[in-house]
């Protein structure tokens, strides 16, 4: 955890998914979709949103939350806020 | 998902969803909605034997919403109605109705559940804006911990999309969590916040509890959203105007929006506007029927509420005759500027008066 500042944004993203959903980093790839694993349900989704906001210091709006249906989509949305991935 | 009736429906729904959620005047709304309802009718005919039996002898398509078949909402308390294979059901929503011992069961697949969230967000954005607000939930945190999804927990989860850093205002025993409430107020007093809860709980465990404790809050930047029905409050002779007055007096909140919606049609909610009227969004329709003949009532006449939602494809509940009484007050001309019908709910039908069930339930 202490090395977070030296992590790339890609690594931070994977770590945020792992921390928020309680899954292993192997599970987190671009194709992973909302509601396809037990851990990423609507409750997990809100924890994830809050984790991404903290890690990347952004504020997501309600459209972003609805659109964030996969890891790939999460990247697109973060890019919109200037997070390069 | 490869089912052709489902594909047609999905295409029609996507096209309806492009429209502004309160932007369609009557004729345009009908033109946008009917292809969706007809597609849902055909989809459920093909995928639900029960629906096919109940609507036996009806045509394949209809011109207007009032021609469409409807099911009594009570059916969902007695049967698990499904239009998808068992392995596609990923969530069962349970609501314990106030008048029934058996909870209603609503079977959701992923697509229906996703549309519910999308619709709720689109409708609520019209009242709250797109930004998420610090959120005070008038409930105890234990309500969402139970994995069997109650309608109450589902309602809170749905609204949680609009909040950030949610704070629960009540303890496990429903007493006021004064520490949490004070901290929330201190932290967010400067900007807009969202307060959400079920009507009865907001009244009993928040407004009344504060009153008894001789406390007043000054949440002038808050918007209160509440739902869940007035039955218990009507018994206490609390109506919407007196509710709002006390909310203003005790909480200091002036922006208050009630919403009406069925657990059987999560997503398409009817939200109260700034002028105190409930509004039908483009994604849903409301009709009023005579409780005795089930014929369509004229505007202004009270009767049984029928709700139609563009969302449910996993269960045949897109057109439901409720046990609520209501009255349509106008269409397209509310002073708030929103298009569509606006209406009020007048209470529930006394149990003994419910007639015509056999008509809606068919011979099956």
From TrEMBL, chain B:
<dbReference type="InterPro" id="IPR007534">
    <property type="entry name" value="LuxE"/>
</dbReference>
<dbReference type="GO" id="GO:0008218">
    <property type="term" value="P:bioluminescence"/>
</dbReference>
<dbReference type="GO" id="GO:0047474">
    <property type="term" value="F:long-chain fatty acid--protein ligase activity"/>
</dbReference>
<protein>
    <submittedName>
        <fullName>Acyl-protein synthetase</fullName>
    </submittedName>
</protein>
<feature type="domain" description="Acyl-protein synthetase LuxE">
    <location>
        <begin position="36"/>
        <end position="361"/>
    </location>
</feature>
<dbReference type="InterPro" id="IPR042099">
    <property type="entry name" value="ANL_N_sf"/>
</dbReference>
<dbReference type="Pfam" id="PF04443">
    <property type="entry name" value="LuxE"/>
</dbReference>
